[in-house]
Amino acid sequence: QVQLVESGGGLVQAGGSLRLSCAASGRTFGGVAMGWFRQPPGKEREFVARITGSGNSRYYADSVKGRFTISRDDAKNTGYLQMSSLKPEDTAVYYCAAAKTNYGGMRRTEYDYWGQGTQVTVSS
User: How many percent of the chain have pLDDT more than 70?
Assistant: First the structure.
């Protein structure tokens, strides 16, 4: 089992930055893919970004490409989502997720473990 805990959310003005963290416990984080998803108010949860277990491949949703960066520090069992140039439409609850395999993907069903979410609110 893997337990994931997100942190770093909050209220920020448009154009600002935030860094989300995802701390993993219960087993080693290394070698498994990690993803970030978000759920805007009144909408379904959507893919944001993912990084493979090896860390050598990243993929982003078009809506965040060039503004968000996903990374991981396996020594700390922690993943990150650096968010810059934030827009009001980035307002959502952000969730981190971990797969049992190296690859991961864009679909929620490809991930086995989920955190409880952290709120990000971007004011205009």
Answer: 100
Query: Dihedral through CA 13, CA 14, CA 19, CA 23, nearest 10?
Result: 80
Cα–Cα distance between 116 and 114 in angstroms, integer?
7
Residue whose C-alpha is closest to residue 68's, from 122, 19, 123: 19
Is the distance from CB of 68 to CB of 84 less than 8 angstroms?
yes
Q: And the tokens for 91?
A: 């307002």
Q: How far apart are the first and last CA of the chain?
A: 40
Instruction: List pLDDT tens digits, range 37-78.
Output: 999 999 999 999 999 998 889 999 999 999 999 999 999 999
DSSP string across 98-121 = E-SSS---SSGGG--EE---EEEE
Residue 44: C-alpha distances to residues 37, 78, 117 (Å):
10, 26, 14
Which of 114, 108, 110, 87 lies closest to 100 in space, CA to CA?
110
